[in-house]
Structure formats: structure tokens, C-alpha cells
Specification:
The protein is 14% helix and 53% strand. The chain is mainly β.
């Protein structure tokens, strides 16, 4: 599992369901908690390798249509080591 954010408030938990492809794509189950909103979806991710710590997304009820949760939050560097460790653990598996 890859965790982004603070467990007590805004956070996203990413549980990859496929290995990262050679083009940096992977599929994952996502659990989103942003203030009073929460939801679970399955999504495809593309890595940009730029080291950003800003989390932004659009979670659709169905693929690209229906109800949509737009969210964004930023992380400070105290969460970066945990994120790196969870990414390394996923790549090894």
C-alpha cells in the first residue's frame, strides 16, 4: 500500500493491483479521505518522476462520467520518507 497524507485528516491510500509497466502506468484500488468526504475507486496512474508532493485528483463514480469528487492537498516533507518507502516496497513485490 502507498499512503499519501496524514492518517488523521486528508489522505489517500493506494493499493496497486498491477505492477508498474515500462511506461510508468499502473492500476490500483484507491481510498480517498478529504475532510468530510471519502470514497473508494479503482484507477489507472501515470508517474511523472518530478518529485512533487502535491496530491490532486478527480475520482469518478464510473469511468470518466457520473458523480465526481475533485480534490487536492499538499504534503510537507515529513511524509516524503514514508512515501518513498511504500513505493520501494511496491516495486520490490
Amino acid at each position: 500500500m502507498i499512503a499519501l497524507g496524514n492518517n488523521g485528516s486528508s489522505n489517500i491510500q493506494i493499493s496497486p493491483t498491477s505492477k508498474i509497466s515500462s511506461k510508468d502506468w499502473f492500476q490500483a484500488d484507491i481510498e480517498i479521505k478529504v475532510n468530510c468526504f471519502s470514497g473508494k475507486i479503482n484507477a489507472f496512474f501515470e508517474s511523472d518522476n518530478l518529485g512533487h508532493i502535491r496530491v490532486e485528483g478527480h475520482a469518478y463514480e464510473q469511468a470518466c462520467y457520473g458523480n465526481c469528487l475533485n480534490f487536492q492537498f499538499e504534503l510537507d516533507q515529513t511524509y516524503l520518507l514514508e512515501l518513498i518507502d511504500s513505493l520501494k516496497n511496491h516495486v520490490r513485490n
